[in-house]
Each structure stands twice: as structure tokens, then as C-alpha cells.
Amino acid sequence: MKPPPFDYHAPRSVAEALDVLAAEGERAKVLAGGQSLIPLLNMRLAAPGHLVDINRLTGLAGVEVEPDGVRIGALARHAEVERSEPAAAAQPLLRQALGLVAHPVVRNRGTVVGSLVHADPAAELPAVLTLLGGSVRLARRGGPGTPAAGSSTAQDVAAGGSFVVRDVAAGEFFTGPLESAAGPGELAVSAFFPALPPRSGTAFREVARRHGDYALAGVAALVVLDDDLRITSAAVACVSAGPVPLLVDVTGECGHRPPASAGWAGAARAVQDRAEPEDDIHATAGYRRHLIGVLAERALRDAAREALNG
Amino acid sequence: MAERTHDITLVVNGTVRRAAVPGRRLLSDCLRHDLGLTGTHVGCEHGVCGCCTVLLDGEPVRSCLTFAVTVDGREITTVEGLADGERMSPVQRAFAECHGLQCGFCTPGFLCTVTALLRDNPVPTDEEVLEGISGNLCRCTGYQNIVKAVHRAAEIMAEES
Ligand SMILES: Cc1cc2nc3c(=O)[nH]c(=O)nc-3n(C[C@H](O)[C@H](O)[C@H](O)COP(=O)(O)OP(=O)(O)OC[C@H]3O[C@@H](n4cnc5c(N)ncnc54)[C@H](O)[C@@H]3O)c2cc1C
Ligand code: FES
Ligand code: FES
């Protein structure tokens, strides 16, 4: 239970980090909070030749609330984002989901962006990003780059070196279990979670064996109402329901109706039908499918209630 | 080829300590083996049991999921640093008084976690206590006396402030 040897790099700037990542390619791994990577190293399930520790890149620690959403830097810890009142006001699903991510002590180190790149199909945040239609910003060496104005990467360009930045939409970012679109040589610098639209609500419901464990199944829901308080859009993203977060639009099943008479049960069945859960030592696929239906209905009803109250 | 080492400086329980460690040295092993502070216990080494929990600049973290080099220059408080000289801290006294420990293996992690919990929330509800200690496993006590000890520590701290 000790990590294998690796060359340790502690860059002081994004440019320096990208240099090492470019030079070492597939041999290098980024170390953020370490709450997923270090267990893998301790169990010798991973043995990267080089570790690029981004914990000194304090410029990436920001949680910026913009009119259209929340941009979370790669060094922002789960606990910081969970505590942020402006972030919770702009997008309440962030805090709702973060309270279910591991235990408070793990949340003190683990990062939101690290959780996205890690792309565990049982993790909450990839489902949140997928449901909201967010994106992850990836940077790599190359040039001449066109970093987004005002981003910390833009300032870094000024500090020397050019690099290429691309924003990858959630739908393309999660490519398989523990696989994301972040390639060798790339650093995820931030993630963007769109703000909650008006007259809408969110909820996250899950079942775990023990509080703080990865969920056996989980469902995040977003419901949007129109001026007459009828449902105009309803969707869920499910955890542990397949290799990547499962996004299901259930607007049709719910019907253009007020929440009190919406077709929640039909919507839950539609979600269940789309799920492809797996058996493991914790639960059978059949039980997971059952949970997904129950949780989808609860999450949708709760999200609709939030939308009415909000 | 010998593994490359890094010279690091940690402020552990108020004392400046130096060590030369390979990049892969876990903070838990650095504390126990390089610095001889064996109060920090190691159970699972993958973040589940919580007995390796120490305070990093006051915040509880898993020392088994932290590399010592990453926290170069930072302040660490271990269970050895909780007492005020010979006098046990309120949390330590409450655990003793309420039988919040039997074998004691999990205790250093609970003490560090609860110390930070009560600093941030001096009068926690039962639910907040359960949430706060949910990441620490105890094989002996059945937790009831640990929950009592947390409330008792809150009382002692209120009495003494
Ligand atoms: C006991 C325990 C319980 C947990 N329970 C849950 C849970 O219920 N739900 C949940 O979602 N998570 C859970 N986690 C995982 C936790 O949320 C992690 O913090 C998170 O998955 C990874 O974030 P990190 O910052 O620690 O990343 P790290 O462990 O540092 O990295 C994880 C992976 O992402 C890569 N990476 C990280 N950051 C970047 C970046 N900026 N650019 C490129 N690559 C990067 C790394 O190279 C590595 O491959 C648990 C962890 C523990 C120890
Ligand atoms: S030894 Fe660190 S959590 Fe178990
Ligand atoms: S007292 Fe023995 S494990 Fe907790």
C-alpha cells in the first residue's frame, strides 16, 4: 500500500505545468487533490512516470460567478465550492450535489475539476455538468493560442509562452468509465456550470450503502416552468447507470402541465428504460435499475417544487 | 539509481521540522517514520477509515492521501499537538470521560476531525455531528459514545471559554 516511484514536478505557473505535460506526454499525470489518484497509486493500480503537482498554481483556485454561470478553477476544492454562497445562488445543484460527494474531510482536498477529469461513472459532478450542459476548459502547449479573455490562462500567456485552449462540452467530455476527453499533454484549467434559468429548480437524490460512499444509483434533475407555471422542460442525469453520465430528456413524458398533474411516473419509467446499470458486489443491475426509477421520480418532483418556490 | 529526494520544511505542532523525502512519501509516513510522530495512525491507506486524519493549516485532511512534498512549508497539527502541555484538550478529555474509545486505533483521527468540527461549529446538532464524523470508522465503540463525547466536548469548551 505504498505508491510506486515517480518523478515529482511542482510547477509555479500554468506555462511551466504545460511544458512538463508536453514533454512527458502519456508518462505524466496531473496531481490535483489526490483523493482519487493517490488511492490508485497506493493500490498500485496506476504507475505514472511523472506527477505534475498543480497545488501551487493558486491562480487556478478561483470560483467566479458570472451572469451566465459559475466558472470553477482547477484548484478549487469541493469544500470551497460547497461553501460559496454566490455559487449556490447562481446554480443550487452544485451545493446539492457536493454534499453527497465523499465525506467532509475528503472534500477539503478533492477538487471539482479533478472529479470531472477522473470521470468516475459513480461520481456526482460529471452528472451535474452533463445535466446543466456545462463544459471543461483544457489547455496545452502549442501556439499561437487564443485563450479566452479574462481567464487565468490569458494572464499566463502574458507571463510567457503560448498555448492552445479548448472548451469541451460535457456531452463530449465523458468518453467512458474513468475516461475523459482530456488527452496527454492537456491540463484542465477550469469548468463552467451554467446558471439556473428563471422559474426552474434542481434536485439530487441518491442511495449509497453508507453516508459519503459512492452511490449505488443517483439522479440529478432540472425542471423549467413557463409563465403559467407549466413544465416546459424536464431532464435528468443519472449516476451509476452506465459507462458515462446518462442524460434523459423527459419533457414529453411530463407533459406541458403544472407539476401537480405532470406525468412523473411515466418519466421515471422512461429513465429506467434507458439505464444500463451493471452488477457488482454492492448491488445487482436489477436493483440499480429499480433505484434509478424511484430516484428519478423523487428528484423530478423535488426539482419541480423548487421551481415553484423559487 | 537512488530515488531522488526533496528537502521539505513542515511546521508540525508549532515546531519547524525538516526532512528529505522522495516524491512518493505519504504525509502519514513522513510524520510517522521521518519525524517519529507515531500518534497519527494508518489503517487503510486509501482514504476510507479516517484514522490518519491530521490538520493542514487547521483543516482536517487525510494524511494517507497527501504527499509530504505537496504540503512543503505548511502547518500540520497531529494528535500529539492537541493538548496544552500536560493538560489534555477539551475534546481529548471528553473522549476519555464518555468512553469514546476502546482500543484507540481510530482515536487520533476522530480527535483531529472533531477539534476542527467544534471550532467551526461550537454547538452542533446530532445530525451535524454524524455528518462531521461520517468519514471516520471505529470498529470498537459503536459510535454512540463518540457522539456523546463530541457534545460533551462542546459543553466543556463553552464552560472554559
Ligand atoms: C473515501 C472516499 C470517498 C469518495 N467518495 C466519492 C463520492 O461519493 N463521489 C465522488 O464524486 N467522489 C468521491 N471520491 C473522490 C473525490 O471526489 C475526488 O476528490 C475526486 O474524484 C478527484 O478529485 P481530486 O482533485 O482529488 O483529483 P486527483 O485525485 O488529484 O486526480 C484524479 C484524476 O484526474 C486527473 N486530474 C485531476 N485534475 C486534473 C486537471 N486539472 N487536469 C488534468 N487532469 C487532472 C488526475 O491526473 C487523475 O487521473 C471519494 C474519495 C475518497 C477517498
Ligand atoms: S489510513 Fe488514511 S484514511 Fe485510512
Ligand atoms: S476505539 Fe477501537 S477502532 Fe475505535
Automatic annotation (TrEMBL), chain A:
MF terms (GO), sorted A to Z: FAD binding; oxidoreductase activity
The protein's name in its UniProt record: Carbon monoxide dehydrogenase
PANTHER family named among the record's database cross-references: XANTHINE DEHYDROGENASE SUBUNIT C-RELATED (PTHR42659:SF2)
SMART domains: CO_deh_flav_C
Keywords carried by this UniProt record: FAD, Flavoprotein, Oxidoreductase
Start and end residues of each FAD-binding PCMH-type domain: 1-198
Pfam families the record matches: CO_deh_flav_C (PF03450), FAD_binding_5 (PF00941)
Superkingdom of source: Bacteria
Species in which this protein is naturally found: Planobispora siamensis
TrEMBL record, chain B:
Pathway the protein acts in: Alkaloid degradation; nicotine degradation
GO molecular function: 2 iron, 2 sulfur cluster binding; metal ion binding; oxidoreductase activity
Database matches in InterPro entries: 2Fe-2S-bd, 2Fe-2S-bd_dom_sf, 2Fe-2S_ferredoxin-like_sf, 2Fe-2S_ferredoxin-type, Beta-grasp_dom_sf, Diverse_Oxidoreductases
Claim: Iron is one of the keywords in the record: yes
Residues covered by the 2Fe-2S ferredoxin-type domain: 6-82
Key words, A-Z: 2Fe-2S, Iron, Iron-sulfur, Metal-binding, Oxidoreductase
Iron found in the keyword field: yes
Alphabetical list of PROSITE patterns matching this protein: 2FE2S_FER_2 (PS51085)
Protein name as annotated: (2Fe-2S)-binding protein
Organism this protein belongs to: Planobispora siamensis
